[in-house]
């Protein structure tokens, strides 16, 4: 049974839903209050305004991602511990990590709406632009590049350019995320994911 949301949590969730559908500028505090089911003035007992709610959405997403990563034993940042976790990685484990991460990003409502918000607000909000890079562009590539470099030093991966390896691994995953956002079926791409992980593993792992 899911935990019932507090009023503040409802405000964050309903705001994200409205922002992702209508854009930040297209939503009023009164509209958010109505979606939550509270009086217009009551919302100010929880947040000073839309910008504060906007920032709270980012904090909530970070908390959700960190919680997911911890539950799946996926390191949030690359360090020596990360290298040790992946040191004995095999194809099955790599596939499981990939499927679990994709499942979180494309099947759960909050991350899906969050991604839609970032794409829509990236040119208005420097915070949204930075978050988009952190979660979907520079962040994943940098993490994987550093990880692959560490695994090369340990003799696990072949000595190719780690940056190119990171692009090779991540680009098809982001492509699949975009296709799913446009309405494609997750099941339709399961075999594509498996084939990609298999090909990557065979090409780069010693």
Automatic annotation (TrEMBL):
Superkingdom of origin organism: Bacteria
Name of this chain's protein: Uncharacterized protein
